[in-house]
Give the backbone structure.
Amino acid sequence: MEEFFQQLTNGLAVGGIYALIALGYTMVYGVLKLINFAHGDLFTLGAYLGFTLLTSFGLSDRVGPLLGVLILALMVMGLVALVGMILERSAYKPLRQSPRLSAVVSALGASIFIQNSIMLVYGPNIQVYPHNIMPDTVIHLFGMPVPLMRILILVASVVLMVALYLFIQKTRTGTAIRAAAIDQGAAALMGINVDRVIMLVFLLGPALGGSAGLMVGLYYGQVNFTMGWVYGLKAFTAAILGGIGNIPGAMLGGLLLGLVEALGAAYISIAWKDAIAFGVLIFILIVRPTGLLGERVADKI
Amino acid sequence: MNLLRVEGMTKRFGGLVAVNDVSFSVDEGEVVGLIGPNGAGKTTVFNLITGNYIPDQGQVLFDGASIKGLRTHKIVDAGIARTFQTIRLFQKMSVLENVLAGQHCRMTTGIFGAFLQSPKARAEEQAALDLALEELEFVGLRHEANNLASNLSYGNQRLLEIARALATKPRLLILDEPAGGMNHQETDALLELIRKLRDRGITVFLIEHDMSLVMQACDKLVVLEYGCKIAEGDPESVKNNPKVIEAYLGPDDDEE
Amino acid sequence: MNRTLISYLLSFALLAASPLVLNRFWLEVLNSVGLYAILALSLNVILGNAGLYNMGHAAFYAVGAYCAAILNTQLDIPILWSLPICGLVAAAAGALVCRPIIHLRGDYLLIVTVGVGEILRIALVNDIFGLTGGPNGIFGIDRPFLFGYKIRKPHEFLYLIWGFVAMTVFLFYRLRNSRFGRALDYLREDEVAAEGSGINTGRTKLMAFAIGAAWAGMAGALYASKMTIISPESFTFWESVLIFIIVIIGGSGNITGVLLGAFLIIGLPEFLRAYVGEFANARMWFFGLAMMIMMIFRTQGILPPGPRFFRLPKAGKEVSS
């Protein structure tokens, strides 16, 4: 029971991180029908920027650990969002009218570029986050010990997801994003500035991805410059699991994937942990290609 | 004899009944028109016959045998070829290559045949080329053989689709709005072409909005409205059918 | 004789003469280019011709390499004898993988093939069936024997590998200009129209995967015998991405373009490493940048394919490709 509870909370925390990254994939895919392969590396960038800001400013010493990490998270999100926007303007915007495959290759190029930029700046070795930022508090839930960090990550990711969901559902701008995802042409005819929507999506997605990077840094204590591949692939899997283009789907898919992986690793085999995620993906695509929350549309002939 | 028989065919998309219990038949050697207002379900009927969709209920019989549920290429193989309402040519390929696509199901050379290029494979290839050129000649596009499909005019693209369909050696040819986007001369030429098709012994089943073409070309009409068949018969009787007039002009309530 | 044929003969003649002037290092680079050329040509059938986004091609490469290694180390079957077996096994793997996912389109197919590639790699690391040797892989694989002569030195491998490339180019040209090759084009251009013209699109996709996988498998066997040691590290996601990029940058669908792509993507970074030594670390960085710039300014790749034109009897414009 204890073991199960630990894996459950761990799975939810990791799942929350997957979900945050998956949101970036799903929003971009919704509007541009593009797999933004560089998204995983924006996530890595978030982790590395968090590392730099942590070690250079010593924020938590001045304003306390919680507020310090909060300010840090906002800075990381802002910076990664900026990089995301620049990426869209330079690598994707010129390719809007090109065949889809060209944009995919450009995205792969961007991914390699960002990954190696990080490697050139920070060096190829693993970077270790400072240990003393957050107190190693363990709290007791239902009589079982859970690291505070784990709870905080889950709470933070849920707060971010709910905020995004409300923004998309309740605001005018959110409606514009949803409209552009359904039909760009029609949205443009209705007076929606599709270009602005795309820019916004490339601010929001990377911001969330960057925050996820910071969380991974805080949770595991170390980051490396290639980790974006694996996290990116898994998060994309989560997005497809929930139904690509579907925002609640990405959240559900992320949490589910985190859970399945944690429990699978614990009860089936740790060595096959990474294969579990892909196995689930293939299974879902075979039995329900539109994902859990995606809608089936008849092909127009 | 019925070449094509559709019995009680129904297709739903979610809550919408696109085709509702439709039955009709097409006789060998006839030219039959399927008409009705926009959104009546005409193209859906075509897609149900050609296997692009599978009917929820009902039966589709071709030459006495059921073709319901068969994959599209099997149905083409059985002898039903079609053109598309929104032109679906292989735009970046040459006109001749487009027609060769139709020959594919009548050829047998496989991968190893291609590697070895046996005399038999070469002969088959040459025969396919000759036949494709003949079909291009038939629709009057022979001189465009090495042009790109995308360079053709709208009307000629429709003719090219017909040539591609003919290259499958069909017994039944299904044309979805063949005169769409054609000017007067082209439409007249199309009428002539449909007559030539009948002379070749090919049965034609077409959707068309150009009533003058429909009236001149067809031996029989089937009329759809809101997914239901409202009339079937020769063009004259269909033209004077009050239900058909109402479907096209709306009910004349205000005169009462 | 047309110009393409002449330039091919000239290029292969140059390659055959290259051991006279090139040192060991550059011969190894050429061998590497040759192996990737075979891999890229095989992916080109799937991705370039049939338009199926396969980003897990390294899986079939791995199947071939491990098949050759296992047959050779456990059953003492000579590498070159096992070549057709490796091809067949990889083709069967390709068809097997493709069968359930045949209906998936575009990006869905892409991500599933990525998943298949990763699952296979993890299976290799976990020493599946006790045959793959786990993370250390398999070592002690024999060098190939050709007519009793042991192939061992770089220039000997050059002839073996580039001979295989030449055969592949010859066969794939024939394939492209055949009924099957056209079917792949129709499939890529418009699947609905292809099926509506009587082409069995499901079967055609399956065949494309089988052919592509077969050649990747044979490339794997050559690789295994060249390295004499193989491990899962050689068949990562990155490997699949590299092959994918060669096809797209070179000119998706065009055999000559894909060959140029292999030289550019595999050869150029080595060139940079050798002559711009201090930038050795930055070569991948340049590479990523170049990919973005390339796609923006030359979307179709270096040499995109053109339509086939046929010599027509009698009237009509006479054009030949």
The radius of gyration of chain A is 19 Å. The beta strands of chain A are 127-128, 138-141, 144-147, 222-223.
